[in-house]
Design brief:
This protein is α+β, with helices and mostly antiparallel strands. Bound molecules: adenosine-5'-diphosphate (ADP) and magnesium ion.
Length: 390
């Protein structure tokens, strides 16, 4: 689960991390009022969407008057912001974050990610942070440093100093950097975060000296930990998620939208992955990943069909069931129920195997509906691809 920049900043603030003073606004009038309360003469109006790259797409604007705060907020709210991270469809801006503009001296990059190889939280940092970090990774990877954290020991001060030194922080900034890194690590561990990205971590001139400040923060949390993270769960913004995925999770279905045209309904995540592979191998493109799980009732199968069909690109549905805990007769009943109640127009390619398979096949055959059946996964994928290719 992702959260907005402003939520991440509020979370970090509660861990003692320095962030600019700011306020969230859902309308231009609120934005102006927020800026007035924040005070000062320069503000930043920042579109809140679950994607980065906003700066380059016009979603981050520095303004010098209350009137411009209002105008900028008005222009942003309700518009679709397309950044290199949103995909071409973009994301609608529902709220903006107004914060004090900082006098930036330098921008650093500081990320905490889980390295799947070492299975450990790893710090990734660079002296060259800011909006071109992707280019730094491509053209000068030597400017990026890594530090692996041992979960049994936790993040040690010397490791923070090592990272800070490598990105050019020294003197009075060293203790600030150590405190900041340890706070982010603690926050990540406490909240079951998978990723925390600070870009930029800025060296800011405050008038009373230089200070490290978090100017942008992205957090991603482990969905499997949300049951014990009430505070984080409350930050969920369903408007930022695919409505089909939201609906699916409400029905206990694991659905992920993809960009092809062959809808998939499969039991088991592994078999679902294999089905996507088989479709791709035959030259087709899956429209989604969907795991109906074990013990799928006819209702669950109907829900799965409905969600898959909400995607207008779907030209056929591949149903691939290897029933262990599941029962093929239930799946068959569910498919018939779905065909009747949803008036499905697209062809259904069905592969059934396992528990009560004979019964399941009989139910389909006697239904009077035109299912395309297949003996195994490979044949089913080939038939699905042939169907969409006409
Ligand atoms: P994104 O990563 O989505 O482009 P950021 O929040 O990182 O958005 O903002 C983009 C750039 O805008 C930053 O790299 C920084 O230069 C500038 N910026 C962001 N927040 C502030 C701020 N409070 N004061 C001054 N400049 C800012
Ligand atoms: Mg950023």
């Amino acid at each position: 689960m992702n959260i907005h920049e402003y939520q991440a900043k509020e979370l970090l603030k509660s861990y003692g991390v320095s962030v600019p003073v700011g306020s969230v606004a859902y309308s231009d009038a609120q934005a102006e009022q927020a800026a007035e309360e924040i005070g000062g003469e320069r503000w930043v109006v920042k579109a809140q969407i679950h994607a980065g790259g906003r700066g380059k797409a016009g979603g981050v604007k520095v303004v010098n008057s209350l009137e411009d705060v209002r105008k900028t907020a008005d222009a942003m709210i309700g518009t679709r912001l397309v950044t290199h991270q949103t995909g071409p469809e973009g994301s609608v801006v529902q709220r903006v974050w107004i914060e004090q503009a900082s006098d930036i001296r330098h921008e650093y990059y500081l990320g905490f990610v889980i390295d799947r190889g070492t299975q450990r939280i790893t710090i990734i940092a660079s002296s060259e942070g800011g909006m071109d970090i992707e280019d730094v990774a491509k053209t000068s990877p030597d400017k990026i440093v890594k530090e692996v954290i041992d979960p049994a020991i936790g993040l040690r001060d010397f490791q923070c100093r090592k990272v800070a030194t490598a990105i050019g922080l020294k003197g009075k900034l060293m203790p600030q950097a150590v405190k900041l890194m340890k706070a982010i690590y603690r926050c990540m561990r406490d909240k079951d975060a998978l990723q925390a990205e600070i870009n930029p971590l800025a060296l800011v001139n405050t008038g009373e000296g230089e200070k490290l400040m978090v100017l942008d923060a992205k957090f991603n949390f482990d969905d499997n930990g949300l049951y014990r993270q009430k505070q984080i769960t409350e930050l969920r913004d369903l408007a930022e998620e695919d409505p089909k995925e939201v609906e699916a999770s409400g029905h206990g279905l694991n659905y992920i939208a993809l960009d092809g045209n062959i809808g998939c309904i499969v039991n088991g995540a592994g078999l679902a992955m294999a089905s996507l592979d088989a479709i791709t191998l035959h030259g087709g493109r899956p429209a989604n990943f969907l795991d109906v799980g074990g013990g799928a009732s006819p209702e669950k199968v109907t829900n799965a069909c409905r969600i898959v069909l909400q995607d207008p690109n779907v030209k056929c549905i591949l149903v691939n069931i290897f029933a262990g805990i599941n029962r093929c007769d239930w799946i068959a009943q569910g498919l018939i129920q779905a065909c009747n109640s949803l008036q499905i127009q697209v062809p259904l390619i069905v592969r059934l195997a396992g528990t009560n398979v004979e019964e399941g096949r009989k139910i389909l055959a006697e239904s009077g509906l035109s299912f395309i059946t297949a003996e195994n996964l490979d044949a089913a994928a080939a038939k699905a691809v042939a169907t969409v290719k006409g």
